């Protein structure tokens, strides 16, 4: 089973070395690729100097473009699974095997969730997460406890979907859409660390706008997208 860890990185010069070195030293059974998303800092230089495997995008495409670049690479190289993994150090590689084990049960996507066994804190940011989760549940009938988690494992069927689907972003509204198409999605507990270096691109104001766009997309826009039933090899 070939798995590729895709690490989109934008201005992560202070974190990327710690993230990749940990994978190389402690989780060498997994392949990885850093997708430098047109960073304005020295992320590319760090990757080059350290000899990391990376794709250097000349301009900033955003998370969707960077992740899809990694998925297209995975599809071309014949990988069976792709793990979306943050370059800021928040995701813990120790949970990868748990996600793999869960996917072995027949799921298309497995989310590393902070709230399978733990309660969601009552903060303004988590209020937005609750709102997104509620929108997904209302429109699909399925409960996703941590819809904004960026640690997601995709099987080969999903790799093919994301590699060719220009509207497939690694965001909660795409999760909602794929559920409607018949994707099998599960979650496993995965604790995460706080960002130690750099700044998130989501400021408070941007977070509010992000939540509003995602909820609007889930409730309204996704209803107008043509539903393409998930085609699995064992069902063809």
Automatic annotation (TrEMBL):
<protein>
    <submittedName>
        <fullName>Glycosyltransferase involved in cell wall biosynthesis</fullName>
    </submittedName>
</protein>
<dbReference type="InterPro" id="IPR001173">
    <property type="entry name" value="Glyco_trans_2-like"/>
</dbReference>
<dbReference type="InterPro" id="IPR029044">
    <property type="entry name" value="Nucleotide-diphossugar_trans"/>
</dbReference>
<feature type="domain" description="Glycosyltransferase 2-like">
    <location>
        <begin position="5"/>
        <end position="160"/>
    </location>
</feature>
<dbReference type="Pfam" id="PF00535">
    <property type="entry name" value="Glycos_transf_2"/>
</dbReference>
<dbReference type="InterPro" id="IPR050256">
    <property type="entry name" value="Glycosyltransferase_2"/>
</dbReference>
